[in-house]
Design goal:
MetI-like fold, 12 helices
Length: about 270
C-alpha cells in the first residue's frame, strides 16, 4: 500500500483526480454545514434570480437556492453512484470468481447469460427495468445492478482462469487446501487490482447513467435535489436562466473527470 501511495503521489493527473474526488466526497458528507439554505425551501419572491452575493449560483423557478441544491444533490448522486459501484463490483466479482474457478456447466451458463445481457445497450435495459418497477432511486440502483455486474464478471473470470494455473495455486491444491480457501486466499487477491481500476473508471459511466435516468424523471422525485433532475428542471429556462443547467452539469462533468483521472493513475500504478 505504501508503494502504491508513493507511486500515485508522483502522478500529477492522478493527484488532481484524487483532489477533485476528495473535495466532492467532503462536500457530500458535510452538506448540512456547507449549504447556506434549505435546499427544498421555496421563496417565489426570489424565483429565477441570477448569481449574486446572496445566492452564489442563483435561484430556481421556485426560489430555491441552487448552490444548496447542488451541494445536497452531491449526497444523492454520489451515494447512489458508490452504492451501485459497490454492489455491481461485488456481485460481478463473486459470480466471475466462481465461474472461472469452478468452470464446466456453471462457467458456460454464466457466459451465456452475459452474452444475452451484452446484446442490449445497458442504459436502454436500465430504462426498461426502472419503467417496470417504477420511478425511485432504489429502483435505479436495482436497474444499474442488473446491467452493471457483467463487466466485472468478465474481468474477474479471465483473471481467475489465469491465476488458478499459477504454481502457488497448484501448491495450495497439492497440500490439501479446500476449493473455497484457495479461491479466497490465493486466487481472488490476484484480481483485486483489475477490479479496483475497473471500478474507479466505471464510476464516471455510473454517474452519467444515473444522471440520465434522473433527467428522464425515473429516479429522485421532486423536491429531492439531484444533479440529473436539476438539469431537467432547468430546460424550460435554458435561455432566460442558464445557470439552472450550468452548475449541475458542471458538477457532473467534474465528478466524471475526477474519477477518470484517478482511475487512469491507478491503472498505471497497479499495472492492471
Amino acid at each position: 500500500m505504501i508503494t502504491v501511495a508513493c507511486r500515485l503521489a508522483k502522478d500529477r493527473l492522478g493527484l488532481t483526480g484524487l483532489a477533485i474526488t476528495s473535495i466532492l466526497l467532503a462536500v457530500a458528507v458535510f452538506a448540512p454545514l456547507l449549504a447556506p439554505y434549505d435546499p427544498t425551501e421555496m421563496n417565489l419572491a426570489n424565483r429565477l434570480q441570477g448569481v449574486s452575493m446572496a445566492h452564489w449560483m442563483g435561484t430556481d423557478a421556485f426560489g430555491r437556492d441552487v448552490l444548496s441544491r447542488v451541494i445536497y444533490g452531491s449526497r444523492v448522486s454520489l451515494t447512489t453512484t458508490l452504492a451501485v459501484m459497490a454492489l455491481t463490483s461485488g456481485l460481478g466479482a463473486l459470480i466471475g470468481g466462481m465461474a472461472g474457478y469452478l468452470g464446466g456447466a456453471m462457467d458456460e451458463l454464466v457466459m451465456r447469460v452475459i452474452d444475452i445481457l451484452l446484446a442490449f445497450p445497458k442504459l436502454i435495459l436500465a430504462l426498461v427495468i426502472v419503467a417496470i418497477l417504477g420511478p425511485s432511486m432504489i429502483n435505479v440502483v436495482i436497474a444499474m445492478l442488473a446491467t452493471g455486474w457483467v463487466g466485472y464478471c468478465r474481468v474477474v473470470r479471465g483473471s481467475v482462469l489465469s491465476a488458478k494455473q499459477k504454481e502457488f495455486v497448484e501448491a495450495a491444491r497439492a497440500i490439501g487446501c479446500s476449493g473455497p480457501r484457495i479461491l479466497l486466499r490465493h486466487v481472488m487477491p490476484e484480481v483485486i487490482g483489475p477490479v479496483v481500476v475497473l471500478a474507479t473508471l466505471d464510476i464516471g459511466h455510473i454517474v452519467l447513467s444515473i444522471a440520465a435516468l434522473n433527467f428522464l424523471g425515473l429516479g429522485a422525485q421532486p423536491p429531492t435535489p439531484e444533479w440529473g433532475a436539476m438539469l431537467n428542471e432547468g430546460i424550460p429556462f435554458m435561455e432566460s436562466a442558464p445557470h439552472l443547467m450550468l452548475f449541475p452539469g458542471l458538477l457532473i462533468m467534474l465528478t466524471v473527470l475526477g474519477f477518470n483521472l484517478l482511475g487512469d493513475a491507478l491503472r498505471d500504478v497497479l499495472g492492471a
